[in-house]
Predict the structure of Phosphate ABC transporter ATP-binding protein.
Amino acid sequence: MRHDSVVPAPAAFDLYADDQATTVIPAVPGEVPGGAPAAYRVAAGGELEAREVSAWFGERLVLDRVSLTMPARSVTALIGPSGCGKSTFLRILNRMHELVPSAALAGEVLLDGEDVYDPRRKLTDARRSIGMVFQKPNPFPAMSIRENVLAGLRLTGTKASRAEKDELVESSLVRAGLWTEVRDRLSAPGGGLSGGQQQRLCIARSLAVRPEVLLMDEPCSALDPTSTRVIEETMTELAREITIVIVTHNMQQARRVSQTCAFFLAAQGTPGVIVEHGDTDAMFSTPRDQRTSDYVNGRFG
Ligand SMILES: Nc1ncnc2c1ncn2[C@@H]1O[C@H](COP(=O)(O)OP(=O)(O)OP(=O)(O)O)[C@@H](O)[C@H]1O
């Protein structure tokens, strides 16, 4: 199905526009059956596929027929110079691109073969199964750590017992690698944490609605090296359970955390395209395209 124009998002999703929220509705799509507590269950799917995705801002084409498969339960890194369309591509994957009034797109995004843009599907479906973590940590600063994790439930009015919430808070913070640091101060404000802790709190908030995919837009660029390392370890752990797509300018980070890599490039005055994609080790050690080689070796960008 093609989507040559985009309907503005309903007001209920405006909170995404200033990056102040995460996935909104909890869901457990495609869980593996088993006896584990709900909060610990692992999603079965999570393959994301973009087919011939193009994007415009007004009349300006900024991405031209980009196709990419992002394998389930692994990390895909999107790399490339500034302005080549990486963030735009990322935002198309969970329907955030359409929040920009002048934005339009064409092509398909499939999550486990299902069209994310199918007009018969609720807009909320994309956001509940494909979460997003932003460059700048954006917890609700006055809310407690616990309330931050549960924010997605609160926003959707989802009912959960105290015990279920306790379990969800703990499991989300464990998965985000933050539990041991905050278990004794869950009532403290989220804004009182360090930058790296705040970013992990945002990851926990995303995880609490049980996404199949987590999109991360330069999640470590505002963090110190130690916090960056912790987030990278968290990503590696999470990728056992969910699909991660990360935009990064840090080539070492792309190499450390991802299994698949896509190199975006927009030559002067032309829209962004993927020059090369594939296995990360191969992209860095034996790139097929000279431009990839030049970029990953720091010769431009
Ligand atoms: N809201 C917007 N309105 C108009 N043009 C935009 C908007 N957002 C991005 N663009 C343009 O779209 C192109 C792609 O931008 P995008 O942010 O996706 O690139 P990027 O590769 O993520 O860059 P960076 O690495 O600097 O974050 C750029 O030319 C940018 O100026």
Summary: Confidence is low (pLDDT under 50) at residues 4-42. The first helix runs from residue 86 to 93.
